[in-house]
Amino acid sequence: MRLETREEPQLLQEGEKSTILVVDDEEIIRDLCSRALKDYRVLQADNGRDALQILNNEHVDLILVDVMMPIMNGLDLLQQVKDRYAEQLVIVMTGYADKDIILRALKARADDFIQKPINLLQLKTSIAQALEKKALRRELIQLKQLDRLKSDFLGLVSHKLKTPVTAISLFLQNLASGIVDPADPEFKRHLDMTLEESRHLEGLIG
């Protein structure tokens, strides 16, 4: 299995439409779906092979695919799409209540099912919900990335702070316990080093 990765686009700008790819061998079904989905940018393909070609050349937010088609049926297309692009949304349309078809689609990770004859309200609702879930997943990933960056940054800062704090603490403890002698030539060197660490610490928190 070859799992390809694609850069996810940024969150849609205001006024920018999501792209839906309608895949059905019946032209009238494609056209009616396109008319019903006028709030989206709609692409069409009449078989799975052509759909894959479009997917290779265009960014598609969601694929709406019929099960029974010539050349490459909807279940085979679903499987290939999910194998290549695991996060690609695919909604399966079917006029068959065959349990085997439903199980195959579930196994291939279909995001939803729409029974034919198509109810336009159900179609619009299913697409809107799938796109919303995808947007929420994307935002969650971005939040996790930001949280990881914050943790890495805090860890780096903590490490940078520990060195001067430790040096100053050790110097003061030695001085308080009488281990160091102010008359010792090394005392002046250690004092200068401690002062340098204190200036470094001031720069970090200043």
Give your account of this protein's structure.
It is rod-shaped and about 100 Å long. The two termini are 53 Å apart. A 5-stranded parallel β-sheet has the order 2-1-3-4-5, sandwiched between helices. Helices cover 58% and strands 12% of the residues. It contains 6 helices and 5 strands. The protein has 206 residues and is α/β, with parallel strands linked by helices.
List keywords for this structure.
206 residues, alpha/beta, rod-shaped
Low-confidence runs (pLDDT<50, min 5 residues)? Answer: none
Task: Write the element-wise H/E pattern from the N-terminal end onward.
Answer: EHEHEHEHEHH
Oligomer: single chain
Indicate the proportion of strand residues. 5-15%
Count of DSSP-assigned helices:
6
Biggest pleated sheet: 5 strands, parallel
* Estimated helix fraction: 55-70%
Helix/strand structural class: alpha/beta
Chain-averaged pLDDT: 81
Strand order, biggest sheet?
2-1-3-4-5
Determine Rg (CA atoms, Å): 31 Å
The number of E-state strands comes to 5
Topology:
Layout: E1 19-23, H1 27-36, E2 41-45, H2 48-57, E3 62-66, H3 74-84, E4 89-94, H4 99-107, E5 112-115, H5 120-177, H6 185-205
Parallel strand pairs: 1-2, 1-3, 3-4, 4-5
In short:
The protein has 206 residues and is of the alpha/beta class. It has six helices and five strands.
